[in-house]
Automatic annotation (TrEMBL):
Source organism: Nocardiopsis gilva YIM 90087
InterPro entries in alphabetical order: PRTase-like, PRTase_dom
Protein name as annotated: Phosphoribosyltransferase
CDD domains attached to this UniProt entry: PRTases_typeI
Length: 258
C-alpha cells in the first residue's frame, strides 16, 4: 500500500469511530473464547463450551473480534456489503475493508503474540454456506490484504442446513492443506460476523483435523444480542466508550510479551 492509500484507510477508520463501539475486551461476564456476554460466574459461554467438547478440542486456538456489532451504521455495513443486487454497496465495502487493512497493519503483531506465533503461513475464509458455489464477498474484499499467505479453500457440505447455528464436524471439506513455505500450518481463519461461532468453529475443526497447528479466527465483528439478559449488563459500558484505533482485543498481550 502506498502512503497515500494508508492515509485514506486511516481517515476512513477515524470517521467510523463516530459510531463504532469500544474495542472488544475480556473481563467478568464476558466469554474468554468469543467475547459474548455470559453469567459472570462462568468463564465460557454455553456455546463455546459445548463446541469444544463436541470437537474434542479441535477448535480455534484464539478468536479475535475487531469490533462489536450491535446496531447502527456498522451493523448496516455488515449486512449490506454482501448484496450484489443493490446500488450503493461500495461505501459499505470500503468501510469494512478499511477496518481490516488498518487492523492488519497496526494489530496483527498483537494477534501473533497472543497466539504465540512469529507469523501466519496460511489464510482461509469461512465459505458461504448459503451460496457455496460463489466466492464469499468477504474473500473478494479482503484477499488482497492477505495475499502473501498460502490460501486454503474449504468446500461446503450442502447436506448440512445452511442456516444451522450448531457445530458440525462435517460441515466443511478439505482433502489436505496446501504446502506452504514451512511444514507447520498456522492459519488465519477470517469471517465477517461471529454470532454463535458455529460456522467458524466447524471450519476450524476441519483445518485442525487436516493438520493445522494453529487456527486463529479473525472476525470483523462480534455480534451482541441486546435482548439477551447478560448482554444488557455489559452493553452500557460498551455503548458509552468509543473505538480506540490504538487498541485491540489482545493488545495487552502484546505488551506483556514485549
Ligand atoms: Zn463463547
Ligand atoms: Zn493491538
Amino acid at each position: 500500500m502506498t502512503s497515500g492509500e494508508l492515509r485514506r484507510v486511516r481517515a476512513n477508520v477515524v470517521l467510523q469511530t463516530n459510531y463504532l463501539h469500544a474495542v472488544p475486551r475480556q473481563g467478568a461476564g464476558i466469554c474468554t473464547v468469543c467475547y459474548g456476554a455470559i453469567d459472570p460466574q462462568y468463564t465460557r459461554c454455553f456455546k463455546c463450551k459445548s463446541t469444544d467438547s463436541a470437537a474434542r478440542g479441535n477448535v480455534a486456538d484464539l478468536v479475535v473480534p475487531i469490533t462489536y456489532r450491535i446496531d447502527g451504521q456498522h451493523a448496516h455495513d455488515l449486512r449490506w456489503y454482501k448484496k450484489t443486487d443493490v446500488s450503493g454497496t461500495e461505501a459499505h465495502r470500503r468501510r469494512l475493508a478499511a477496518l481490516f487493512w488498518y487492523f492488519r497493519d497496526h494489530h496483527i503483531a498483537c494477534v501473533k503474540a497472543a497466539a504465540g506465533l512469529s507469523s501466519f503461513s496460511h489464510v482461509c475464509f469461512v465459505p458461504s454456506t448459503k451460496t457455496p458455489e460463489h466466492t464469499h464477498p468477504l474473500q473478494e474484499l479482503l484477499a488482497p490484504a492477505v495475499s502473501t499467505l498460502c490460501r486454503i479453500d474449504l468446500a461446503v457440505n450442502t447436506d448440512v442446513d445452511s442456516e444451522s447455528r450448531e457445530f458440525h464436524k462435517d460441515w466443511f471439506k478439505l482433502d489436505r492443506i496446501p504446502e506452504g513455505r514451512r511444514p507447520e500450518a498456522d492459519v488465519a481463519l477470517i469471517d465477517d460476523t461471529w454470532v454463535t461461532g458455529s460456522r467458524a468453529q466447524s471450519a476450524a475443526y476441519r483445518l485442525k483435523r487436516a493438520g493445522a497447528r494453529t487456527v486463529v479466527v479473525l472476525v470483523l465483528a462480534r455480534q451482541l444480542d441486546s435482548a439477551y439478559a447478560h448482554t444488557k449488563r455489559i452493553l452500557g459500558p460498551i455503548r458509552d466508550s468509543t473505538y480506540d484505533l490504538d487498541d485491540c482485543a489482545v493488545h495487552d498481550q502484546r505488551r506483556r510479551t514485549g
